[in-house]
Design brief:
By secondary structure, this protein is mostly helical. It contains five helices and two strands; from the N terminus they run αααααββ.
Amino acid sequence: MEGGSASVGRLAIYGTAWALELPPRSPQTFPKAKRALLGFSTVRPEHVRDPPPEQCVWLLARRMLDQNRWDYDLGAAFTLVAFDTYCRASELLTLHRRHVLSPRGGNPTWPLMIGVQGERPAKNKQFDQGVIVGIHG
């Protein structure tokens, strides 16, 4: 991890906690590593990263589906939708069934309405315009 960013360290900590089935947000899980990560973040602040290659996302989703657990199936769908739409996790966690639109006009896809205007302000406290994804022209 030497020379890497704080995000690499954070992913290593949470990935290890996940592999060992430890609660990642617990104060008892790797307390020294988390303190070191805070100091590391101030020395070398994070920057914008490129998204992973599409093949990595598909492989990750496939691995989740191979677990044959409903929560992993949901995680696989969440991962694919997040990658496809460039949505933040907080945006996807607020979605409900009413945001899924039924197919219309001979188009067999089920579009997804994200950021419906007036529902919730963005990080800048302003309301963004809604976006429909999943419609192919």
